[in-house]
Design a protein that fits this description.
six-stranded parallel β-sheet, 13 strands, seven-stranded parallel β-sheet, 16 helices
């Protein structure tokens, strides 16, 4: 182990292509790994999308038992043993909410600095959500520092008082801006590859899950095709509802209008092929896909479940999900009238979405926290 190397342990459910995971991987790729190294605790035995890359960057992956509500003793015991066996960690950075009350408590008992990061504004629905809502309240007290991708996400998890304290920090879901800049050559290449050279392409990037509202997207497409015969829907992503959405597409006779490309690492290339970005999520902590779409110069039509602070280009149109499908269709059709596409890198940078800037901040943040802890430790030792 390198001298003076600070190792930070991040906690996730799994490390696949998704918003919070992609943010941390973007940070990991850009951070000075001679000074700060990321390791991960995950709650799955499955091979993950980012697993090989983490190992190639020098990171370690530990697999905790998945918390199911009845294995509390086993779960707490695992974390206790983890902290006893890994005294090299001084900071734990939590992204998994459901069991955070247990691992943050054990981390504090073992002398770690605790950071909790809010990436959402909801725990979903049903009995599981009720349990998660109960367990989330103590997190504002167990977290030495609180981070959130937006102020709504911060208030939802930590409360208004904590958000207005000096222990809270807004941390934008930053990206590598140059990767997403508009590229006409790449656009032409991707449109040729997808066989939509002279078509209108409405795009969406997101996990196939209830919150992303794919069924609503299909209802919009069904109306759009009645007006524009050359319109297509490009769906990037995978998830538990993938097969169900495929079946609905067939039942609605939309097979020839929907392009499924699955989960992709090069989302930036698929954005180039699109003419407009549609994102009617039920809710989002921020909506990193909208940031990426704007940087690439796309107009965005999204639901009011998306925080307004994500709009840095004035190219985002918010609509209520209770509005008629006709209003959504009319808005989409009007959006690109006389629009000349260009990149919005400068605007994104100014709004705080540059991964290089955010990486320097988090690197300094971690190191300052560790230095403060060491100073306090030394003062305490001298008093004794």
């Amino acid at each position: 182990m390198k001298a003076n190397l600070d190792r930070i342990v991040h906690v996730f459910g799994r490390l696949n292509y998704a918003g919070a995971e992609t943010l941390v991987m973007n940070l990991y790729r850009n951070i000075n790994r001679e000074k700060v190294q990321f390791d991960f605790v995950v709650h799955t035995e499955e091979k993950m999308d980012y697993e090989d890359e983490i190992y190639s960057l020098g990171g370690k992956i530990y697999r905790a038992p998945r918390f199911n509500g009845i294995n509390i003793i086993q779960y707490i015991k695992w974390w206790n043993e983890f902290f006893r066996n890994h005294i090299e960690y001084k900071i734990i950075h939590g992204h998994l909410r459901g069991s955070a009350v247990f691992y943050l408590y054990e981390a504090k008992r073992n002398g770690l600095i605790t950071i909790m990061h809010s990436h959402s504004i909801s725990n979903g629905y049903g009995m599981t959500a009720i349990a998660k809502n109960i367990l989330k309240y103590p997190l504002r007290f167990l977290s030495d520092y609180c981070l959130a991708c937006s102020y709504p996400a911060g208030k939802w998890l930590f409360g208004k008082k904590k958000v207005h304290s000096d222990k809270f920090f807004l941390f934008k879901n930053a990206i590598d801006l140059d990767t997403y800049k508009f590229d006409i050559a790449k656009r032409n290449e991707m449109r040729k590859q997808l066989n939509v050279i002279d078509k209108i392409v409405i795009g969406h990037v997101g996990r196939f899950d209830d919150v992303k509202n794919h069924k609503f997207i299909l209802r919009i497409l069904d109306e759009l095709k009645k007006i524009e015969s050359d319109i297509y829907l490009l769906l990037v992503g995978n998830g538990p509802l993938y097969d169900e959405i495929n079946c609905i597409v067939k039942k609605m006779d939309l097979n020839d209008k929907v392009i499924f490309v699955g989960k992709k690492k090069n989302v930036c290339d698929y954005l180039q092929a699109m003419d407009l970005f549609l994102f009617p999520s039920l809710y989002e902590g921020l909506g990193i896909s909208i940031v990426e779409a704007q940087v690439s110069g796309l107009k965005v039509v999204c639901s009011k479940g998306i925080p307004t602070e994500v709009d840095f280009s004035d190219n985002v149109k918010y609509l209520d999900l209770n509005e008629s499908i006709k209003n959504w269709v009319d808005t989409i059709l009007k959006c690109n009238e006389n629009y000349i596409r260009k990149s919005y890198i400068f605007e994104a940078q100014k709004a705080g979405y540059d991964i290089k800037q955010c990486t320097r901040w988090i690197e300094n943040f971690y190191q300052e926290l560790i230095q403060q802890k060491e100073r306090h430790k030394n003062v305490f030792s001298s008093i004794r």
